[in-house]
Amino acid sequence: MTILPICITGEPVLHRCADPVESFDSTLADLVADMTETMHAAPGVGLAAPLVGVGLQVFVWSYRGGGPFDRRYAHALQLDRGPELGFNDALSGVVINPTLDLVWDDAGSGAILETEPDMVCESEGCLSVPGVQYPLRRALGAVLRGYDAAGSPITVAARGWLARIFQHEYDHLRGTLYVDRLDTPYDEVARAHIAERGWGIPGYTWTPGE
Asked: Can you give the pTM of this predicted structure?
């Protein structure tokens, strides 16, 4: 396995839709292994193939729970009953050629969340915009469908932060970064951060561990 360089915003592969995977072969298996190694080294809780310069519909994830969002809203999200309900029953894995259905339920429409995203519980980071985090509202639930590395169908129902991870990585496969979704004033702050570092053009990467 190899730790791969991670592309920084401005690299074209990050800003276009990824192509479907057509061959479930050893090359794909090697890519998944390298992506998983890179994700853990970063460290991160998810990694989409475009972040390592590969424009294919693949992402990996690994989340063991216990983040601020899930701790705060565990009861309302029924995360304490996750295995019983089938929520968050695959806390690590890979998905190929995914689709994602969002669940905007009663809780998602404001029953447990404030009007504005919480600076602590709802701030996201991104390996392609390293060093900062900004608050962003996401759907509280998501159903991920696709294929594993062997080509077998998978379905994962997620609530809370795992659902957010799925939304974040799925966005990467559509050419969208989380900073593209930020509301004012955070969108302006993010643009300033990127400009100050000279990012936003091709050629910038970083490698975990270096």
From this structure: 0.91
